[in-house]
Amino acid sequence: MTTARDIMTTGTECIGAQENILDAARKLKDLGVGALPICGTDNRLKGMLTDRDIVVKVLGAGKDPATCQVGELAQGEAVTIGADDDSEEILRTMTAHKVRRLPVIDGHDLVGMVALADVARALSDPKAGDLIEALSTD
């Protein structure tokens, strides 16, 4: 049984909810990633920040990225996957929530990230194809 722990990328870094969007954009660039988990001062996951969020919700809305805080973009509870959840649960969660990245948690600790590319590499071609098709439709 393939689990999230087996296919996740480790070393995932958070962006603090109190940090500004400009710093978040720099961190995305420096890390070469398209999304960062948002963590509160309690080190708990508060949401996800994507490069698209910055463009649409900050720049497109005319907000100042130097004064807008990351926490303002955290919407509701973050969709996550447990480290020991199997590949079928990863597929169900990504499909149901139409997300391309899932923070992986072990208890309350963020231990990694599973991206669509990780799933595509780890699963059989038909299952990966089904997931990509599900995420590509409205």
The SSE order reads HEHEEHEHEEHH
Low-confidence stretches: none
Beta strands, count: 6
Strand order, main sheet: write it out: 1-2-3
How many domain units? 1
Structure description:
With 138 residues, this protein is an alpha/beta fold. It has one domain (4-136): Roll (CBS-domain). The protein is 39% helix and 20% strand. The protein is built from 6 helices and 6 strands, in the order αβαββαβαββαα. The strands form 2 sheets. The protein has a 3-stranded mixed sheet. It is globular, with a radius of gyration of 15 Å. The relative contact order is 0.21. The mean pLDDT is 88.
Can you summarize this structure?
About 40% of the residues lie in helices and about 20% in strands.
Secondary-structure topology with pairs:
Layout: H1 4-7, E1 15-16, H2 21-31, E2 35-39, E3 45-50, H3 51-59, E4 81-82, H4 87-97, E5 101-106, E6 109-115, H5 116-122, H6 125-136
Parallel strand pairs: 1-2, 4-5
Antiparallel strand pairs: 2-3, 5-6
Helix pairs in contact: 5-6
What descriptive keywords fit this protein?
three-stranded mixed β-sheet, alpha/beta, CBS-domain, 138 residues, 6 helices
